[in-house]
Amino acid sequence: MLQKLTIKNYAIIDHLEVDFSGGLNIITGETGAGKSILMGALSLILGERADPGVLFDKTGKCVVEGMFKVKKAQVADFFRQHELDLEDILIIRREISAAGKSRAFVNDTPVNLGQLGDLSNYLVDLHQQFDTLDLEKSDFQRAVIDALVNRPEQLQQYQQQWQRYSQVQKELKQLQDQRDNANKELDYNKFLLDEMEEAAFTENEIEQLDAELQVLTHAEEIKNTLTRVCYQLKEDEQPILQQLKQLQSALQGLAGFQQELPALAERLQSSYVELQDIADEVERINDGVQYDGARIELVNERLATGYRLLKKHGVQTTAELLQLKADLELRVESALNLDDQLLQLEKELAALQQSLQQMADAITAQRRQQAAPFEKKVNALLAQVGMPNARLKVDIVQGALQPFGQDNIEFLFDANKSGQFAAIRKVASGGELSRLMLCIKSLVAQSVALPTLIFDEIDTGISGEAARQVGMILRDLAGAHQIICITHQPQIAGKANAHYFVYKEARSGKVTTGVRLLTEEERINAIAQMLSGEKPTAAALENAREMVK
Question: What does the entry list under GO cellular component (predicted)?
Fold first, then answer.
């Protein structure tokens, strides 16, 4: 619950502190005194965006601080998720500089506005004057019924399944688009692949064929040269090899007379061996060189095919051509495999849809089970708050599967027992919406572990006995929840556990707002003034005393 609210330098508030009780806290005061300003300041620590124009003193900074007493189990998940220190007392602070810079802190640890807003959902339900518009929204109406069902783990399980279902739907659509595009290219890619497979080039084949063609087209010139080399080395009248052998023998014969000659003779022997090997190799190559017209024609045809494919695909080498072939094989294979992948996804989608349908049917059954008693209780409360002829009806229509089930839920309203129900947004007045929202929240609060409910002028459009009944509902709610309520109705103010009066005063030449907790006699006087004016009559005072007692 909210134990203390401290506000500094906000709007027409210089500095004030309010200590709240754990029951029904009523805030009253004249119009314009600053009651709703309190709610504006409170909304800052609940994550609302800040306007630097609200600073009371433009040279200082605005500070709003709320001290909450919390049950650790209630907020433990949030604190664990955001790695914050959790204590029994939770202090939320918001600072706004004159330059418009805003900072937020939870137990002195900086947080962003998104985190602050998420945390506030665990702490406070703030009902302001225009929040009755939420009652007209289908999401709010569904959330009300789900809160009464009070099976959050079931909804969470459904939503997790729905997320997977949506993901598979997306993957299936992408794969179908991919298949459609692949099918458009499949025939052409298969044609290109068939062409390459028919050519059946091997690694470096085009380069090797090009080299072979050079040999074949110059075979006569190569053979003549090799024959001459071989002849001069081995078969001439004075073959080079024979001459080297003779020279080596001559030097070897003088080895005993000159110590350097054996080494030279050995070198000549090595040269002889090397030239002998060269001669043999030249002879071998020469024997292999033959002019082959048929082979030339075959190589030319093969090269023509290779050059055509290289040019067609804009590549330079056999290796690049083979890589392109591998890519085409992968594309064709992928396109052919898409049908298998699609079949698997379609099977998964069907299984997920069946599971979701079963879960949605269970959720629908539970919602329908809660609808009738909810209608009965709301209608009883409507009679209690001065709308005896009003009826609420919950219309649940099954439709397509959605993130929250399959139900389209709408609250229908009949203000005059006419039997003609219509959507709330079409037939309910502002005052009726306000009272209807109170009735609904009073029922929801019994199922939702929300410690603090704040109502900003929930009594719009009511008075007299209806206002007294609203006060009784608020007082009943305060048995299990902290209630903070701004009101103009004395019947509601009379039900307070703690009554705060908001007033204006002049201080240092400026008008500022103050708040004080009223004593019992001050309460009686304030309520009497609400009944009969600034100077209450004895009857008004007596009536006020009876309300308080």
Answer: bacterial nucleoid
Instruction: Report which DSSP code applies to 59.
Output: T
Residue ranges of domains in the chain? 1-128+457-518, 175-338
- State the angle between helix axes of 318-384 and 138-149 in degrees (0 to 180), rounded to the nearest 10: 80
> What is the C-alpha separation between 262 and 244, in angstroms, rounded?
15
Query: Is the Cβ–Cβ distance between 5 and 18 less than 8 Å?
Result: yes
Q: Which amino acid, one-letter code, is at 41?
A: A
Q: Which residues in the chain come in under a pLDDT of 50?
A: 128-130, 132
Q: Which long-range contacts (CB under 8 A, 24 or more apart) does 134-137 make?
A: 134/437, 135/411, 135/424, 135/433, 135/436, 135/437, 135/440, 136/423, 136/424, 136/425, 136/433
Instruction: Give the global pTM.
Output: 0.63
Tens-digit pLDDT profile for residues 111-163: 988 888 888 877 876 654 335 456 667 788 888 898 888 888 899 999 999 99
Number of H helices, E strands in the chain: 17, 15
CATH says 1-128+457-518 is which class? Answer: alpha beta
Kindly compute the dihedral angle of the four CA atoms of residues 260, 264, 269, 272, in this order, to the nearest 10 degrees: -170
Contact 431, 402 (CB under 8 A): no
Q: How far is the CA of 149 from the CAs of 138, 231, 244, 391, 406, in angstroms?
A: 17, 109, 112, 21, 16
Cα separation of 25 and 486, whole Å? 9
Lookup: tokens for 379: 């209608």
Q: From the CA atom positions of the chain, what is the Rg in Å?
A: 48
Q: Rounded to whole angstroms, how far apart are CA atoms 376 and 541?
A: 38
CB 496 within 8 A of CB 523: yes
Tell me which amino acid residue 512 is: T
DSSP secondary structure of 275-337: HHHHHHHHHHHHHH----HHHHHHHHHHHHHHHHHHHHHT--SHHHHHHHHHHHHHHHHHHHH
What the block records as the tokens of 106 is 């939870």
